[in-house]
Amino acid sequence: MAEEEPLYVGIFDPVDLRRDLLNSSKVIITSLRKYEQFVAVRDEKTRYMAALAKTFREISALNRRLMQLMPKTKIKPGMIRKPEPEKEAMPRVVKRVGRRMRPAEPAATVIKEKTRLAELEDELASVEEKLGKLE
Predict the structure, then answer these.
(1) Residue 45 has pLDDT above 60, yes or no
(2) What distance in Å separates the CA atoms of residue 120 and residue 125, rounded to the nearest whole number?
(3) pLDDT digit string, tens, across residues 7-24
(4) Are 23 and 29 in contact, with CB atoms under 8 Å apart?
(5) CB 3.0-4.6 Å disulfide test: which of 72, 95, 117, 121 passes with 104?
(6) Eight-state DSSP code of residue 92
(7) pTM (2 decimals)?
């Protein structure tokens, strides 16, 4: 057995084998591309985290400096009470209008400025009402 005999393997369907090999290569290349994207995102995240830590350090230093410049008082932060929200002075009366119930306006009505969104909603309602009358 000094000489080795060549070993031959029979391939029954070479086209399918080539197709399977190419599909496997395609899956591997796709996985490698996704891994590279993952590495890029991880590096970007690391850079952002470093920038955020730097910003927090700057804010902390500025806060310490501000506290040093503020006048010293005997009032501690927990000693100041927040004002409680005002309760409605008059109870709301419910009026019956047709089949629906709606709250009545209190006697001392406070006129509030309408926001731009509320004005647009009112205009939309009036336009829809006019369209309903036309039909």
Answers:
(1) yes
(2) 9
(3) 878 888 888 888 999 999
(4) no
(5) 95
(6) -
(7) 0.42
